[in-house]
Structures are given as C-alpha cells and as structure tokens.
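Sharing a chain and its predicted structure for anyone who wants a worked example. Both blocks are below, sequence first, tokens second.
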Amino acid sequence: MTGYGRGVAERDGASLAVEISAVNSRKQVDMRFSIPRELGMLEPVLRQRIQQKLSRGSLYVVVSYQLSPEQAAASGRINLAAAQAAANELRELAKTAGLNPPTITEVLAVPGVLNQDRDALYEPLRELVEPALEQALEALSAARVEEGVRLREDLEARGRQMQELLEKIIIREPEALVQFKERLRARLEELGGDQVSVDEERLARELVFYADKADIAEEMVRLKSHFTKYFQLLASDGDPGRELDFLGQEMNREITTLSSKTTDLCIAEDALALKIEISKVREQVMNIE
C-alpha cells in the first residue's frame, strides 16, 4: 500500500528526521536506505524496527540530521598539535622523495588531525532515531489506513461487477446449448443435402459430446465460491492481502479455463470482461497487507 510518513526528533539543538515512502509490492518488505555515511550505524536499527511493524511493501527510507551550533563547530575542529606534527613529517618525506611540500588538504586527511572522536560527536543522534522513526511509522500508517478505506470501497464495487458478469454467464449457458443444437442440426442437414434427414440419435450423441467437452458448470460453481470468499476477506479485520492475492490467482485460473471451453460469443465476451476485472483486482490487491 502506498503512503508517506515523516518524523522528527530534537534534543539539545540537534535534530534527526526519518522519512518513509511506500509503494506497492507483492513481495515481503523491501527496503532501500539513504543515510549519511557518518550515521550508517543506524541502518540495522531502522531495518529491524520497520520489519516488526510492516509485512509488505517497497520502502524508501531517508535519514537526515542537523547538528547544534556547538556540535557543528566541533565537527570541523582541528587538533593543532597533531596537524603540526603531521605537516612536519610530510614535509620531511616530500623533501627526501623530491616531491612538492604537502598541502593543507593533505595534512587534514591524516588520521587524528581533524576531529579525533567523530563517533562521540554523532552518538547523541542515536538516541533520536527511535522517536523519529516511530513518528514516521505512525504517519505512514495513518496514510495507509485512509487509502485502505478508499481501496476497500473500490474492491467491493469491482466484486459486485464481477458477480454480475458471472450471473450473465450462468443465465446465458442454457440458451447457448440450445443455439448450438440448432447450429449443429443445420450443419448436419447442410452436409447431408436435401435427400438426407437429420438422425435425432446422431444429433443427441453430438450434443452429449459437446456438452461434456464444453461443460462450464464446474468453473461457474467455483467462481461463485471464490466471490463469496472474496467479500468475506474484504470484510475481515485482519491483513487479508496475501489471501486475496492467492484468491485472485484462483479466480483467474477458473475464468481462463471457462473461456477456453465455451464456443458461445456472448459467454466469451462476458468471460473476457470478467477476466479484465479480475486482473484489475489483482493489481489493487498489491496495495493490501
């Protein structure tokens, strides 16, 4: 189910934000992260908590932060003693090797020159990730609930449409057999010419053969049962997404078999319309957990 949630936590002038965007997916939770390198240690925490709360969907999680003025100043603080020692050593090395003197960038790149304890600098942000994440998850859940109400209404309307199409097929099926009998009689007379009358026994055998080969009663019964289950799942308070997904596959299998059996144009047209509706339902079901 699609949705978006954002949460922000603040402490001592520092803030951390977590944003979660969710899109449809038939798979289990699939997560992609955009996290500043210095906060990479937060990803396992975020991943574990999200998996506890969500069971389905493709998620994009973005983490951003802002340090307090004091922390920001500390992040660029230079250890002058270490910088001087590094510069002296690099100059001696450059002189010995016949290279150019070191630049300020090269001196700052030496470990220990710039902000020796960066882990301690970002440690307070770890305490902000959980409240920010909880806010984001709550906002995402609220958005998904709102979408879920509209989604249920749409699926119920599609369910009624599918039932109407199946009912048309059920009503049409006896008439289709009668019309086939008439076509078969006319064909036999055409093949036999004016001198040959239609053998009723032969006609009956042909009809029995057709009825056995083109019998769609079993598929109609199963589809009716599937539709009953469909509405039960929509009315349930649980998470029917996976069951509806499986049910959609079964409905599609039945209508495909029915379509391959019938030779009646009206039934074929209604079966095609029903198959299209089932396909739309299966796409929508991707939104449900």
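Comments welcome. The chain is about 65% helix and 10% strand.
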